[in-house]
Amino acid sequence: LMPSCSAARSPRSATRSARVSWPLSNLRPVAVSGLLIVAAVRTLGLSSDSPTIGVLFGAGAVGALAASWIIGPLQKRVGVGVITIIALLLAAAAIVGWALSTSFLVGCIALGMWQIGTTTVSLNGIITRQALTPANLQGRVNTTARMIAWGGQPLGAGAAGLLTEGIGVAPALLIAAAVSVITAVVGSALPVGRSATPNTGQDEDSQVFC
User: Fold this and answer.
1) Closest C-alpha among 117, 128, 116, 158 to residue 22
2) Which pLDDT tens digit goes with each residue over 7-64?
3) Which of 20, 25, 171, 173 is deepest in the core (most CB within 10 A)?
4) What is the pLDDT of residues 164-198, one digit of tens each?
């Protein structure tokens, strides 16, 4: 009989999973995606119905795809805490580039790099959560994590809109970049910043079910 995941992993592992993964899931910089069209119109000078705006979204999609390719090799070589911190800093630098860009090409590159960073943070947290959470808690942990992550997005988008209306799109984006940097700095000072890649210690078949 295959050993149960509950027996293989202690409640402490489940607690660690929540501590590592839920904050990471909350760090989605919705300000960038929510303000993309606004920034394209006000900063790049595009019309609101320009088809080239779709290219900007496409650049972000390419970045997300790239993140899905690199996350596996990264987790084999680097601890999950280091991956998250570096990805947050990359996202912050890309947001600054996007906020200050007046070139369409530079804007595409910045959005692609931003999506690499933010998607890497998200995937890193999800993979870690699933690796550390016992099988009997997977549904509850995933549901709670999704509610926290997605439930907070309207608040972030609303705050970004208010900031843009009050101080402009570029300053609002720079604030979002600063939040990403602060998160990385705080994370580096916490135990999560030094977390290694989880090792389930189980064979391949049991990992499929766990």
Assistant:
1) 128
2) 334 444 444 444 443 444 343 467 888 888 988 998 888 988 888 999 999 999 999 9
3) 173
4) 888 988 898 998 899 889 988 888 887 765 665 66
State the amino acid at position 93 in one-letter form: A
| Contact status, residue 196 vs residue 79, Cβ threshold 8 Å | yes
Question: In the chain, where does DSSP find H-type helix?
Answer: 5-8, 11-25, 30-34, 36-42, 52-77, 80-100, 104-132, 138-151, 153-167, 169-189, 204-209
Q: Can you read off the two tokens belonging to residue 165? A: 């209306």
Q: Is 103 helix (H, G, I), strand (E, B) or coil?
A: coil
Rounded CA separation 180/114 (Å): 11
**Does pLDDT of 158 surpass 60?**
yes
Strands (DSSP E) contained in the chain are none
Cα(101)–Cα(103) distance, rounded to whole angstroms? 6
Please check whether residue 195 is in contact with residue 79, taking contact to mean a CB–CB distance below 8 angstroms: yes
Tokens encoding 38: 């606004």
Tokens of 190: 């916490």
Distance CA 81, CA 78 (A): 8
pTM of the model: 0.75
Return the closest-CA partner of residue 39 out of 155, 176, 150: 176
